[in-house]
């Protein structure tokens, strides 16, 4: 396969960085974007090539347009655009300052819309191109303390479905989404936090390299969606098939597994400006802890499910 021109927004960390390195290893030409130049330069140095670096804030449409223009100036075309630029905020909706909620939605939904607009403008002209968006399990289910992120990711899923409908006249243009569950990246510790405790990826946790593999597979063989995460389908099933059970369990599970015991005072993390990151969350899960989490969740779901079914049967008998 010949070399492709690949733009990565959110290339300085986590999944975007792992994807950039995987594309580089394959011999593709890269255009790397995020807000922090030093982070991008560190990734560029690891590629062993000479990628174009364009400092870009995806919340600014004109900056994303300038990024596309810079990529076209250097390479004349864009084959693949991977967008993993995102931020997160922990805290009950009522505790999150409005500007924090708005900024997460602006980055994760409107920022992605800016990327999609610029990418599609190029792809329509070229008659071809693949857009790969960082979606999430939280585009399919909901979780407390993450209202802004959930709102953005559900919105993004709606946007991507609409874009697929609107580009049916372009068979060589592909709108894809990669849907991870929990991934060991610094997004959890970089997040704004109004929950009182530092966030962490709930088990089971995948590596960013595993998700990058899925991104590469989408670039090679575009599909609507690829899911990464052993528990994703079960969680989605619980969310859609047993809403009362899901809603009863999700808050205690989120407190037990999605938040660490490490206390923190309220802060805005990296959502308004890039800042130095620490890779990984405050806690790494071992196999026993993952097995215990799965068993506890399954037992609680079974008990609640049985109680719900009994309640239903009693109501039917009375009715
Ligand atoms: N980690 C997970 O468990 C997980 C699970 C499901 C889905 N996802 C999704 O996967 C994608 C990547 O997440 P990740 O975990 O790899 O996060 P990450 O390690 O925090 O990386 C996020 C990247 O986005 C960039 N970024 C943030 N705000 C930006 C802005 N306004 N403009 C441009 N770049 C910006 C960051 O660099 P700067 O700060 O320098 O700008 C960084 O390069 C996201 O879409 C996320 O929602 C992650």
> In total, how many domains does the architecture comprise?
1
CATH fold field value? Rossmann fold
| CATH-defined architecture | 3-Layer(aba) Sandwich
What is the CATH class designation?
Answer: Alpha Beta
Shape: globular
Structural class: alpha/beta
The value of Rg in angstroms is 20 Å
Distance between the termini: 65 Å
How much of the residues is beta strand, in percent?
15-25%
Which ligands accompany this protein? NADP nicotinamide-adenine-dinucleotide phosphate
Number of strands: 13
Order of helices and strands: EHEHEHEEHEHEEHEEEHEHHEH
Helix tally equals 10
Helix content: 40-55%
CATH superfamily: NAD(P)-binding Rossmann-like Domain
Lay out the secondary structure.
Blueprint: E1 5-9, H1 14-25, E2 29-34, H2 37-47, E3 52-55, H3 61-75, E4 80-83, E5 89-90, H4 98-126, E6 129-134, H5 147-166, E7 173-180, E8 182-183, H6 187-190, E9 192-193, E10 197-199, E11 205-206, H7 208-220, E12 225-228, H8 232-241, H9 243-258, E13 259-263, H10 287-318
Parallel strand pairs: 1-2, 1-4, 2-3, 4-6, 5-9, 6-7, 7-12, 8-11
Antiparallel strand pairs: 10-13
The chain binds NADP nicotinamide-adenine-dinucleotide phosphate.
Tell me what you see in this structure:
The structure is a single chain. Helix 1 (14-25) packs across helix 7, helix 3 (61-75) runs parallel beside helix 4 (98-126) and helix 9 (243-258) packs antiparallel against helix 10. Strand 2, helix 2 (37-47) and strand 3 form a beta-alpha-beta unit. The model has no long low-confidence stretch (mean pLDDT 94). The strands form four sheets. This protein has a seven-stranded parallel sheet, sandwiched between helices. A two-stranded parallel ribbon has the order 5-9. It is globular and about 70 Å long. The protein is an alpha/beta fold. The longest helix is centred in the last third of the chain and has 32 residues, at 287-318. It starts with a strand and ends with a helix. 51% of the residues lie in helices and 17% in strands. The chain has one domain (5-231, 260-281): Rossmann fold, CATH 3.40.50. NADP nicotinamide-adenine-dinucleotide phosphate (NAP) binds at residues 9-16, 34-36, 39, 56-59, 84-87, 107, 111, 134, 136, 180, 182-183, 185-187, 190, 201, 208, 270, 274.
